[in-house]
Amino acid sequence: MKSAKPALLIVDDDPLITDTLHFVLSDDFDVFVAESRQQVKSVLTQLDEAPPLALIDLGLPPTQHKPDEGFALITDLLNHSKKTRILVLSGQNDEANARHARALGAIDFIAKPAEPEQIKRALQSALRFEQEVASAPRPETADDSSGIIGTSFAVDRLRNQIKLYADAPFPVLIEGESGSGKELVAKSLHQWAKRGGKPYLALNCAAISPSLVEPTLFGYAKGAFTGATQAHSGYFEDARDGTLFLDEIGELPLELQAKLLRVLENGEFQRVGETSSRFSNARIVTATNRDLRKEVREGRFRGDLYHRLSVFSVHVPPLRDQPEDKLALLEHFRKQFSGEAGVPAFTFAPEAQRLWEDYHFPGNVRELRNIVIRLTTKYAGRTVSARELEDEFDLDVVSPGSIPMPSDANALQEYAKFHLRGVHSFNLDQVMKQWEKSYVEAALGMTHGNLSQAAKILGVNRTTLYSRMQTYQSD
């Protein structure tokens, strides 16, 4: 029987903390506890639906003194359900960690030690905002492509590809960085197709234990394994003539890739524990943020499966490649969330608007959306200053492509040969200094001359950067 209380997932490897929070919060929440990312996957498979709230530590096993596992868990939880509101409770509370956690999708960061009542208020506030958003009428979108916002060439091309491929029965592989909107593209492919009225099912291959992927996809017979007390259909069967979206397909175990290939070839599959064949006519759409061609070369992904999945390929551009869409997305989400929360919208001071336009959004549209939610909550009806906006940005992370880097070492070598050919006098130190100066100037431009932030982007100390800038002036 489903609990009347909202579910809360607490992830921390300190039993004193989890026991205390479980005792304090269990009157208001249905509390589930895990101490690692791996345990979280097991807990999620036991729940009928994703928990609306999660309270997580960053320092988790096996690297308790680093925030990496906690950052990865934020991504895992949002891959499992975009509706889970994540709050970070951590002793690794420097501002860089807080910003990066928010960029990945966390809505709040609470530094340890914190009073249980403070934590309870933060959880209740997050839940209240989510309930208000869920109960509010959804605004109509102005464009005709299922909520894909933007006017850039990259977004127009994406819309055209969706319309072109929507009715084809062949698989589509959607590639793009985390947070760029791959799931929205998958839903649009389904909605624009003639099968749009048929079922649409989505499974994240990274958010489920490898041992459960096969019975989840193909179903199982009664008694097929411990706990299988009755027969159950799988995603392929339930999708019928609709669409089955497999997110993070690069995480699918090799042994299951062969079984997926067989379904793609003739629609045939078997429930776990059965010998009779069943058939599915579902259209398969997959997505990944990995380079599957590289995965094939390195033996982690089957080449024949890759070619089956990528009959059509769609690339979702990162937000940094569509700078003109940052303001369109801002206006869309600002109007949406202020309307849903019933509060006046915030505005930007001129300096803040310029900062918004220049920011590279390493977390892509997901990060932009979460920033708008936080600004709506904190500055409703107010003018946001550049300093207030800067506090929401993850300026310690350089996204791929924010500073141009040679993508091919061989191409760089060929350029060097071309440059050296016929040169009678060449000064390597001078060339290296010019390259260094170009990167310094690029970093300073990105941060509007803020020396501390530029030093973080370049991976050097502030004093080191200042000293190198002095040498440029003296040359």
Please name the CATH architecture of the largest domain: 3-Layer(aba) Sandwich
Helix content range of the residues, please? 40-55%
- The number of helical segments is 20
Structural class: alpha/beta
Largest sheet: 5 strands, parallel
Nearest-angstrom radius of gyration? 25 Å
Number of strands: 14
Give the CATH level 1 class of the largest domain. Alpha Beta
Report the portion of residues in β strands: 5-15%
Q: From the structure provided, what is the oligomeric state, counting identical versus distinct chains? A: single chain
- Stated plainly, the CATH topology of the largest domain is called Rossmann fold
| Widest β-sheet, arrangement of strands | 2-1-3-4-5
Q: Mean of residue pLDDT?
A: 84
Distance between the termini: 75 Å
Number of domains: 4
CATH superfamily of the largest domain: P-loop containing nucleotide triphosphate hydrolases
Uncertain runs: 136-145, 398-407
Structural shape: globular
Give the key terms.
Rossmann fold; 20 helices; globular; Helicase, Ruva Protein, domain 3; alpha/beta; single chain; 5-stranded parallel beta sheet; 4 domains; 475 residues; 47% helix
3D structure, described in words:
By secondary structure, the protein is of the alpha/beta class. It has four domains: 7-135, 3-Layer(aba) Sandwich (Rossmann fold); 153-315, Rossmann fold; 319-390, Helicase, Ruva Protein, domain 3 (Orthogonal Bundle); 409-474, Orthogonal Bundle (Arc Repressor Mutant, subunit A), CATH 1.10.10.60. The chain contains 20 helices and 14 strands. It has helices at residues 15-25, 37-46, 68-80, 95-104, 116-135, 153-165, 182-191, 210-218, 235-239, 254-266, 292-297, 303-309, 325-341, 350-358, 364-378, 386-390, 409-420, 428-446, 451-458, 462-474; strands spanning 7-11, 30-34, 53-56, 85-90, 108-111, 172-175, 200-204, 243-247, 268-269, 278-279, 283-288, 312-315, 347-348, 383-384. The chain has a five-stranded parallel beta sheet with strand order 2-1-3-4-5, sandwiched between helices. Strand 9 (268-269) and strand 10 form a beta hairpin. The longest helix is centred in the first third of the chain and has 20 residues, at 116-135.
